[in-house]
Structure formats: structure tokens, C-alpha cells
TrEMBL record:
The keyword Hydrolase applies. The keyword Hydrolase applies. PANTHER family: CYTOSOLIC NEUTRAL TREHALASE-RELATED, TREHALASE. Keywords: Glycosidase, Hydrolase. PROSITE patterns: TREHALASE_2 (PS00928). GO terms for biological process: trehalose catabolic process. This is Trehalase. Pfam families: Trehalase. It comes from Geobacillus proteiniphilus.
């Protein structure tokens, strides 16, 4: 994995295009999967964590730092990516960063729920709404959002009435 995905110059994991034999140097939360899997060294994890400001928004983490019009990019935030990043950060002792991301994500999901009565598949983490980009509007009642919300609220933030 490190041979193909790790880029020491950038201090980041990137996708690798096997057909052309090159990395695609595109900043996305996929770079945190090695932290979640405990596959990164402590030094690599520290370098990846330095890139958190590229993704951090009022409502949590944007999937990437580029707005392409695709749904897995800026400004969209996704529950499973939040879980991967939060757990990856915790695996390497970045508990304060994990807590901050958790608070922002819970704040966004709760705000939208109080406004609409629904949980959603994806959110706009910049303006803290469901005005997302992609092929279709954000879908209501998404299981992965419900599960991640519950796990973060109870396990990370200590909510006893969630």
C-alpha cells in the first residue's frame, strides 16, 4: 500500500492509477483510510493529519478540497467518511481533532433534523444544509447516517439521551 499510495513529498496518501502507473494527487478523505486500518506509521499519520484544515468546515469534513460537481467531493460531507476519519485519528492519539470533527458533524445533523424532521445521506458541510451537489438530491433516512450519528453521539460525545 505504501509503495503505491504514499507520497512522501506531499505527506499524503493518494489514489494510484494502475493503467498509467501514476498517483492521482487529489486531496480527499480517502487518505485517512490507512489511519483507520492502522496501516500508517506514526510519522505518516502525523503528516496526513496536517492536511485536516483542507477538509474541515463548519459542519464537519468535506469529502475533498475540490468542487468538481461530483457527489463525493466538496462541499459534500458523508457519514461513513466522518467515521473513518474520526476512528483513524483516535487510532493515532489525535483525540482532540476527532472530538472537534465529531462535534461539528453532530451539530450539522442535529440542525438539519430539527429543521426537516429527517436524517440524510449526505450534507453540505459548508453551509450546514442538504443543498448538496451530485447526480441526485440528498436522500432521506439513510441508515449509515443514522448509525454514525448514534455511534458518535454516544461513544465519542457521551450523549445519554440519544
Amino acid at each position: 500500500m505504501n509503495q503505491y499510495l504514499w507520497n512522501e513529498s506531499f505527506g499524503m496518501y493518494f489514489d494510484f492509477h494502475f493503467l498509467n502507473g501514476r498517483q492521482h494527487c487529489y486531496y480527499s478523505l480517502a487518505a485517512f483510510y490507512p489511519l483507520w486500518a492502522r496501516a500508517a506509521s506514526k510519522q505518516q499519520a502525523a503528516k496526513v493529519v496536517r492536511h485536516l484544515p483542507l477538509f474541515l468546515q463548519p459542519g464537519g469534513l468535506a469529502a475533498s478540497n475540490v468542487q468538481t460537481g461530483f457527489q463525493w467531493d466538496f462541499p459534500n460531507g458523508w457519514a461513513p467518511l466522518h467515521w473513518i476519519v474520526i476512528k483513524g485519528l483516535q487510532n493515532y492519539g489525535y483525540d482532540l481533532e476527532a472530538q472537534e470533527i465529531a462535534r461539528r458533524w453532530i451539530r450539522l445533523c442535529t440542525k438539519v433534523y430539527l429543521e426537516t424532521g429527517n436524517m440524510y445521506e449526505k450534507y453540505n458541510v459548508v453551509d450546514m444544509s442538504i443543498r448538496t451537489i451530485g447526480r441526485y438530491p440528498s436522500q432521506k433516512g439513510f441508515g449509515w447516517t443514522n448509525a454514525v450519528y448514534q455511534k458518535i453521539a454516544v461513544d465519542l460525545l457521551g450523549c445519554t439521551v440519544c
